[in-house]
Amino acid sequence: MNNILSINSIRFVVLILIQVLMLNNINFFGYINPYPYILFIILFPVKSNRALIILSGFLLGLIIDMFLDSGGIHAAACVFIAYVRPVVLKFSFGTMYEHHNIKFSVVEFGSKITYITLLVILHHIILFSLEIFSLPRIIFVLQKTLFSSIFTILLCMTITIIFSRQPK
């Protein structure tokens, strides 16, 4: 249990540092921003307490909001994906989720990409809708969501592939 706590604590700090120090300065074409800090919520242990992941998601988003001075939009988006995560897990992994035996390093690639894609798109829709908050600019919200989601998904998949442990 201590090992899982220390790994998640390190992941929390490292993802925040990467987001704040490096990736917040990236802005391709005015609307493509990567947000791989949500990998913390995506990779949080399945067997953990649901209130703990929602609280952790809130703290994660709040810290990012403090660095970006964005008024709570990251916290709202993180709490939302932390809240709907069990539904997305069940949709993506089916019976594996029902038995709580999901290990992200050994699940099939299709299920993993479905899971990551759904959470990233949900996060980005909430984030950019709250950021822009204008119905006439809905096309811009969708465009920003699409392109930022593609870039974030590619970055998240690359990080998970690089740092995944191979089963023995």
From TrEMBL:
GO terms for cellular component: plasma membrane. It is a multi-pass membrane protein. The keyword Membrane applies. Its main location: membrane. NCBIfam families: shape_MreD. GO terms for biological process: regulation of cell shape. It is found in: Cell membrane. This is Rod shape-determining protein MreD. InterPro entries: Cell_shape_determining_MreD. Keywords: Cell membrane, Cell shape, Membrane, Transmembrane, Transmembrane helix. The chain crosses the membrane at residues 12-32, 38-64, 71-93, 113-133, 145-163. It comes from the Bacteria. Belongs to the MreD family.
